[in-house]
Design goal:
By secondary structure, the protein is mainly alpha-helical. The chain contains twelve helices and no strands.
Length: about 230
Amino acid sequence: MWMRVALIAAVAGSLSALYSSGFIDVISDPERARAALESLGIWAPILYVVAFACLEPFFIPGLAFMIPGGIVFSASELFVLSWLGSIGAGIVGFGFARFLARDFVESRLPERLRRFDDRLASQGLRTVIGVRLTLFLAPPAHWLLGLSKVRFAPFVLGTAIGFVPGIALASYLVVFVGESIGDWIANRPPGTFALLALVIVVIVRIRRRRAKQREPEPDAPGATPRGEADVSAP
């Protein structure tokens, strides 16, 4: 318990220090972030990956790192560094959630989520890849996977595989479109993303309904099993 309290205090203190030091303001301004990265010299790639991994799980958007990174790094460099940073972010969020709340949440999971949790335990790699492809860098995805039964090795491998398409596309857009991609996202009305979320929910529900329709119906109590003749009559 004391270790958990100390960890929470350390994370909260670190985030507070970053906000009060003006670091968050720097990474939110592409020009200032670019100048900061260029001033770091050979340390820039290392600090880029570390900052990405440590801050993204706590609601600092990945694009806040990728947009200035696209000005300093080439497309291939940005892809590799952002991919490593995103894997690190997943591990940080996963470890934070599992260390702090795993036992508490496991005992209180509703049956529907418990079945999904069992699926993560038995088909962890495929499920993690699907989560990463659909939710990408959403911090709650890191936490939910950390609270699940998925083992660490499938989690890391599935995260690494599932992030490849999204990071590759984002790296291409950031480098060749530049800051305009960030401006485009910032200028979208909230209804755009609400509509996108609604479409995703509808698709997921349709797929679940089709999967349920394909499941064989259980036999009624006392009924003759399918494919077997009733031999009890004289």
